[in-house]
Specification:
Blueprint (H helix, E strand, L loop, with lengths): L1 E2 L14 H6 L5 E10 L5 E7 L3 E7 L19 E5 L10 E9 L11 H14 L7 H15 L4 H16 L7 E2 L4 E2 L5 E5 L3 E4 L4 E2 H13 L2 H8 L3 H16 L6 H17 L6
Parallel strand pairs: 4-6
Antiparallel strand pairs: 1-6, 2-3, 2-5, 3-4, 5-6, 7-8, 9-10, 9-11
Helix pairs in contact: 2-4, 2-8, 3-4, 4-6, 4-7, 5-6
Length: 279
């Protein structure tokens, strides 16, 4: 365990309930690192996604020191149990203090080939979730999606499924078994697409009504695995409508991960186009 001061240490890997965390301010929180940046020569500012308190920002004092155990713990895509320091005098203060951190275990390491997909998930959470707003179901879906990417599940399937679950959790995804404008059940053989402002509407280029109903049933089930299964045959067709819907709700906040992916792809294509040197 990494700790900066003496205090209670988590003894179990079970998830503390929201009620327990509220009653015990220093109870361990299950969390993932979304992002970190330098705060001083020795410390970091860390954005966490926690199950019981949502997205929070912490000051990890001394985390950059060579002797700090935080250096090997405050990494993305690995579950942590974190304990917060004393609540600031100003209870509305957004920057809290990291008291201790412990690896929660149970998840495989993210392979290099899946890192961009994982960072894309983190960027969505950073830009679309308000701080200090708990989303325990979305947290579980995020953890399962990270595990899916680490285990080699098709990236497009995992990302499309998470986009659907995120939009539903935010309350901006319409009922997918109902045509939004007419409020009538979708027709099985008719085709529909998702539009940010109009919802689910008829479109010759869209998915069939039966496919949207399957997606809605998977979302109602609630598990990432169920939504991934429903997305598998339609992931390619979902990419554009979901990305456009996300951009609409992001407003002026651009997504940088897709731009990085495009840059990496261009470099890879250029490298393949170079002539092979003859020995």
């Amino acid at each position: 365990m990494a700790t900066n001061e003496e205090g209670p240490r988590p003894r179990s890997l079970t998830r503390p309930s929201a009620r327990t965390a509220a009653a015990r301010p220093h109870a361990p929180l299950l969390a993932y690192v979304l992002h970190s940046h330098d705060w001083s020569e020795t410390s970091l500012i860390v954005e966490l996604f926690t199950r019981d308190r949502g997205r929070i920002v912490l000051a990890a004092k001394g985390a950059k020191r060579p002797t700090s155990n935080f250096r090997s713990l405050l990494l993305p895509f690995q579950p942590l149990h974190v304990v917060l320091g004393k609540t600031p005098v100003d209870e509305q203060a957004e920057i809290l203090t990291l008291r201790s951190a412990d690896w929660a275990g149970g998840r495989p390491l993210m392979p290099a080939s899946a890192l961009l997909g994982g960072y894309y998930l983190n960027e969505l959470l950073l830009k679309l979730l308000a701080r200090q707003d708990a989303h325990p179901t979305l947290f579980d879906n995020y953890a399962d999606t990270v595990a899916s990417l680490a285990s080699g599940v098709d990236e497009a399937v995992a990302l499309r499924a998470f986009e659907l679950m995120l939009l539903r959790e935010l309350g901006v995804l319409p009922e997918l078994s109902t045509a939004t404008l007419s409020a009538e059940p979708v027709q099985t053989d008719a085709r529909y697409t998702l539009q940010a402002e109009a919802g689910l509407v008829r479109s010759a280029q869209g998915l069939t009504g039966a496919q949207w109903v399957t997606l809605e049933a998977a979302l109602s089930h609630g598990s990432a695995q169920a939504v991934q299964h429903a997305c598998r045959p339609v992931a390619a067709a979902l990419r554009v409508p979901l990305r456009e819907t996300l951009h609409y709700h992001l407003g002026h906040l651009p997504l940088r991960t897709p731009q990085v992916r495009q840059g990496v792809q261009k470099l890879a294509n250029s490298a393949r186009a170079l002539p092979v040197a003859t020995p």
